[in-house]
């Protein structure tokens, strides 16, 4: 059985950081990045239901959304060769690879509206990258593998599935409204700590 | 398909109340009770997965836990004739009947440790009762029906499945440690508001 405790602890700590730092993005990035790196060091905590690829579409499984929609954490599952459109976020985000590898391509938009690719990097398991309107918000993410699933854990400064944002036409740079939603109707129950509490009572 | 929106709105508002009132139990009860009454006025928002009885045991389906474990909301499903042991909570709680009917019996503990029943009331659909160490914390809840399922929605001032509390022997009043846990490993995804956000974009 999956031990969900690492995700529960991540959710508690990330919530405390969001309460403490508010809109101070640099402080949040500084404190959240090590937490995410630690979370993706192992993957035994991620239940099977949130690592299932779809034959056609990359999947976005919500793992937790803050009840005030200040932040969220999502499992992205890429089938062989799958990729996102070029898109933005409008909030801060951290992307950490937990299985396989991904290719991230960054874009800036010129004054005439055209997109220019400014970098491409291969993200291996354990790597974390940042996005936001401040540090660069337009990118495209692809499974680096043509023959296997890759999975990344994404943390965002909002309920990302409900953020009004944009996808971009790679040829013209034209912007189209985009709301991503989620692939799942149920999220993991992080809060059954009864075994842990019972064990504590017996030690006491 | 279930429209989860009433539960999502309840969770947001209850979170705001818990942040505002903190440990002021009277203020919380005053503001939360009407929210719960409003929530249980209809039951179309409660997905089937969280209304399933078990042939032997009453079920406790977590619907949402606050990430800082300050509060939680749980669907209790009583099969025909099922009842809780006599138990306490150690935190504030509100119980609202959403389907069927329940019998609630309140107890006080005498100085010699014996339990005395101080009241029994039948709770119909739409009724809400309070529990807490302040207003009376020891009770027993039973399905009022011998031939059908009853369901109630419980709101507590903590992650109730992880609270170290007690059940009581009805004869002697002897107290036994109790941690209730949850019947479910997945909770509803309240946060896919993408259809609502897309509709708003089209109106704009
Ligand atoms: Fe992205
Ligand atoms: Fe109770
Ligand atoms: Mg009904």
Automatic annotation (TrEMBL), chains A, B:
CDD domains: cupin_CDO (cd10548). SUPFAM superfamilies: RmlC-like cupins. InterPro entries: CDO_1, RmlC-like_jellyroll, RmlC_Cupin_sf. Keywords: Dioxygenase, Iron, Metal-binding, Oxidoreductase. The keyword Glycoprotein does not apply. One of its GO terms (molecular function) is oxidoreductase activity, acting on single donors with incorporation of molecular oxygen, incorporation of two atoms of oxygen. Fe cation binds at residues 87, 89, 139. It holds the Pfam family CDO_I. It comes from the Bacteria. Belongs to the cysteine dioxygenase family. This is Cysteine dioxygenase. The lineage of its organism: Bacteria, Pseudomonadati, Pseudomonadota, Alphaproteobacteria, Hyphomicrobiales.
């Amino acid at each position: 059985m999956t031990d969900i405790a690492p995700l529960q602890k991540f959710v508690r700590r990330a919530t405390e950081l969001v309460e403490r730092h508010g809109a101070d993005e640099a402080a949040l990035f500084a404190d959240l990045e090590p937490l995410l790196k630690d979370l993706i060091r192992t993957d035994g905590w991620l239940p099977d239901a949130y690592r299932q690829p779809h034959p056609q579409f990359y999947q976005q499984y919500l793992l937790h959304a803050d009840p005030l929609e200040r932040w969220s954490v999502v499992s992205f599952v890429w089938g062989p060769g799958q990729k996102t459109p070029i898109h933005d976020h409008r909030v801060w985000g951290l992307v950490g690879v937990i299985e396989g590898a991904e290719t991230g391509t960054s874009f800036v938009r010129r004054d005439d509206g055209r997109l220019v690719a400014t970098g491409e990097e291969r993200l291996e398991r354990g790597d974390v990258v940042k996005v936001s309107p401040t540090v660069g918000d337009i990118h495209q993410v692809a499974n680096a593998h043509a023959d296997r699933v890759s999975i990344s854990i994404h943390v965002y400064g909002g309920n990302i599935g409900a953020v009004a944002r944009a996808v971009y036409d790679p040829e013209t740079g034209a912007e189209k409204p985009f709301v991503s939603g989620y692939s799942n109707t149920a999220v993991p129950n992080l809060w059954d700590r009864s075994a842990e509490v019972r064990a504590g009572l017996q030690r006491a």
